[in-house]
Design goal:
With 341 residues, the chain is mostly beta strands. The chain is 4% helix and 43% strand.
């Protein structure tokens, strides 16, 4: 009897269910209005919002923890990595190591929080005369026991450098952006030093898949022990193994079989996450992910004492100048810009 390739289906919610080595995946999609002089939202548009904790979609957008500029002011993390994939919009990054920068549509930021750091992620409204759409994923990738002791590390994958597969099937194109891993001999850019994704045998894959109407694409077999999840977040329908799947569903798939995806009659967008599990216990409390409950208590005590190096900026929600462009500045003062800048 042929093994079933679809193990399970689940409707997508606000936070998407993940499996080790991933902890969390969040998809943000907001349509912000034109920005004011501070690259924020005009005060009259903010009436009636629970500023500081605004997660309810109203007038097409949320402010999250921001009170003028939307986003996530300074907050701590320890014990995992954040991989932030921007599809549309602008993100400003500042952290407790002294790094800061701006990245935008198509760019990816990879941050290893390791033994602890603070950072902010603000969404400056750089357009004055037109709207400021924002669409992004933030994926939390766990670290193993040794990685949780590592120095924090911040790295940018500029859109110009991210490897892409383009596949034509009867003239219908599928495009795959390889954020992590390898597919059909095409390798991703190198992840951070302590990352679980750095070791090829861990088979960590993060892939953005865009399929034209009528396109067909085959996911290669990888390993019988990986966790493989396909998130169909935009489109109408796809077919896998004869089953018709609606948009806004997670498909848990086997990892050691080829998976043929047949797209329906509209453009479809999917996110594929896969990897060998980290077979270690997990103790999590909010932004801290450790192995034992006692380590969580110790982390709170450490943060209360050291603030993970403190906050070097004059406000918890800093943003760069409106015309700053895309760049990354590191703690040693080195500045990195994408090729087009």
């Amino acid at each position: 009897m042929e093994k079933r390739k679809i193990i399970g289906l689940q409707k997508l919610g606000t936070q998407w269910t993940t499996e080790s080595p991933f902890i969390l995946t969040v998809y943000h999609k907001d349509h912000y209005p034109p920005g004011n002089d501070e690259q924020g939202v005009d005060k009259e548009r903010l009436a009636g919002r629970n500023l500081g904790e605004d997660f309810e979609l109203k007038d097409g957008f949320r402010m999250y923890h921001g009170k003028s500029v939307p986003g996530f002011p300074a907050h701590p993390h320890k014990g995992f990595e954040t991989v932030t994939i921007v599809l549309q919009g602008v993100v400003d990054h500042f952290d407790s190591k002294g790094c800061f920068g701006r990245y935008a549509s198509g760019d990816v930021q990879w941050l290893t929080t390791g033994k602890g750091c603070q950072h902010s992620e603000m969404f400056p409204l750089v357009n004055r005369e037109q709207s400021n759409p924002l669409e992004l994923f933030q994926i939390w990738l766990n670290l193993d026991r040794n990685g949780k002791k590592a120095e924090p590390e911040y790295r940018m994958f500029w859109k110009e450098d991210i490897p892409v597969i383009e596949n034509l099937n009867n003239g219908n194109k599928t495009t795959v952006k390889i954020i992590a891993g390898e597919m059909y001999g095409i390798k991703a850019l190198e992840p951070n030093l302590a990352s679980w994704a750095r070791e090829e045998s861990h088979h960590v894959g993060i892939y953005l898949i865009h399929m034209a109407p009528g396109a067909t694409f085959t996911l290669p077999k990888v390993s019988s022990t990986i966790n493989r999840n396909l998130y169909f977040y935009e489109g109408n329908t796809i077919q896998i193994e004869g089953a018709t799947i609606q948009a806004s569903y997670r498909c848990k798939l086997v990892g050691d079989e080829e998976i043929v995806i047949h797209n329906g009659n509209t453009n479809s967008s999917l996110l594929l996450l896969e990897g060998e599990p980290i077979n270690e216990p997990i103790a999590q409390y909010g932004p801290f992910v450790m192995n034992k409950k006692e380590e969580i208590y110790a982390t709170f005590a450490e943060y209360n004492k050291t603030k993970f190096g403190g906050w070097k900026w004059d406000r918890p929600d800093p943003v760069n100048e409106r015309n700053a462009g895309r760049f990354a500045q590191f703690a040693d003062g080195t500045i990195e810009k994408p090729k087009e800048e």
